[in-house]
Amino acid sequence: MAGRGSNKPQILQARVIELSAQGASGRRIAAELRIHRSTVARILAGPEARGIALEARERARRMVEKADAALHRSLDRGSSRTAIAVLRGAGVFESRAEAIARHHYRDAERAQANLEELERKSRESAAGKFGRAPGLGEDRESERLDRLAIAERERAANPQPKESPPFDPYAFAVRSRLRRHR
Length: 182
Description:
With about 180 residues, the protein is an all-alpha fold. It has helices spanning about 10-20, 25-35, 35-45, 45-75, 80-90, 95-130, 135-155, 170-180. The longest helix has about 35 residues, at about 95-130. The mean pLDDT is about 80.
């Protein structure tokens, strides 16, 4: 390796460059390969990594040019599938089924919002008529605490017999030694 690169093994350098090309951050690469972040930065700043990055960009540019040319040829032939795919990708076109599903989803959201509003109004109405509305936040907490207190009283009134733990010879030996040293 010449220049500013790294003195790390080439297989490690190749892995760093590969993970970087896949979009991994320097921190994630360092953690995954268990090397320091500055080592990752040094490898990625080296001439090999820069050459590979330039090569990948050039390949991607050529692929985009080919895809663009193929798209134009397909559209020139009058392919409706290609046109629809392009419009969908641009977010301009949706099928009838997609539109129906979207409208049903919006209707369901509106119905849920209306239901929540009705519940809120009925709680407020109940609070005005009866002095307290069941299910409001503060009352829920007090009801929960009441339930816990009742359960604790029942447990205290009906204690469960404790099971004796299994015999542990090591613990027995330790306890007997402690008794001797008192």
